[in-house]
Each structure stands twice: as structure tokens, then as C-alpha cells.
Amino acid sequence: MNRLFLLAPLALAACGPSTGTKVASASAPIPVRVTTVPAQRPAAPPAAGFRTARVMTLPGLEGVIGADTGALQRQFGTPRLDVWEGDARKLQFSGEACVLDVYLYPPAPGGQPLATYVDARRASDGLDVDRASCVRALKKG
User: Fold this and answer.
1) pTM of the model
2) Contact 116, 56 (CB under 8 A)
3) Rounded-to-integer distance, Cα 94 and Cα 77, Å
4) What sign has the CA pseudo-torsion 71, 103, 135, 80?
5) 48 within 8 A of 110, measured Cβ to Cβ
């Protein structure tokens, strides 16, 4: 009798209703496609609500922090991502060594955004890496 008691839940589970949903196995990785969106600068926010960005200062980032979009593209090439959010902009540059996110904020209302913050991570697993090392690894020529 004890064995029948242990097998009863398995037998009942096999008789349960089906949702009719087919499940496909993921045998091959799904390719990732990056789509670039044209970078269009939005209208400047009202000056009354403007706050100046806090600027990062770390050794090895001197050529990046304070740079505009043109200067960053001359250093790293075409960004993988170019995203506007309000009057702020994020440029992402990537290579085998790392992924570099550069955040640009205008120094004054309606001003041209300048790099104020940098973040870096490994391309393989997303773990943080030294920002200055990533900058050196991604610089052109």
C-alpha cells in the first residue's frame, strides 16, 4: 500500500490538463542584432530645471572626460550605440577587450554635451574592468 501512495501523485500529474502550448528547445543560440537609431538631439530642457552634471575625475581618463562626441569618435571610431535621453547622451564603444559607456551631459542649458562619466565592463561576461585600461584598449591607432 505504501508504494501505491508514493506513485499516486505521478499518475495524477500525467493526467492533468494540457495548455496546448508547444515548447521548442533552444539548441542554437539566438543571434543578437544591434540596430542603430539616428542620433537626433532633443529640444533643450527649460533652464529653471537644469542641474549641472558631476564630472568624474580618475587617472587615465583625461582625454575622454570633457570630450565632445566628435573627439570621442576620433579616439574610438563609430559608437556601437548612440542614445539620447532628454539632453543627456550615451555613446557605447566596444571591442574584444571591453565595452565602454561614455555619458555626456551639457555643461549649461542648451550647451553641447560633454563626457562627464565613463563605465567599463568585459564584453564576455559584463564584469567591471578598469576604466583607464578599457580606454587604452579601445583607442584607435
Assistant:
1) 0.62
2) yes
3) 10
4) negative
5) no
Q: Say if residues 78 and 89 touch (Cβ distance below 8 Å).
A: no
User: Is 58 within 8 Å of 131 (Cβ atoms)?
Assistant: yes
Task: Give, in order, the Cα–Cα distances in Å from 22 to each of 18, 25, 70, 121.
Answer: 10, 10, 50, 38
Q: Are strands 88-94 and 114-121 parallel, antiparallel or unpaired?
A: unpaired
- Residue-wise pLDDT for 2-53, tens only, equals 554 455 554 544 554 544 444 444 444 445 455 455 555 555 555 555 455 5
Do 97 and 78 touch, CB atoms closer than 8 A?
no
d(CA 31, CA 72): 29
Chain centroid to CA 80: how far?
A: 10
Name the one residue in this structure whose C-alpha cell is 567591471.
Answer: 128
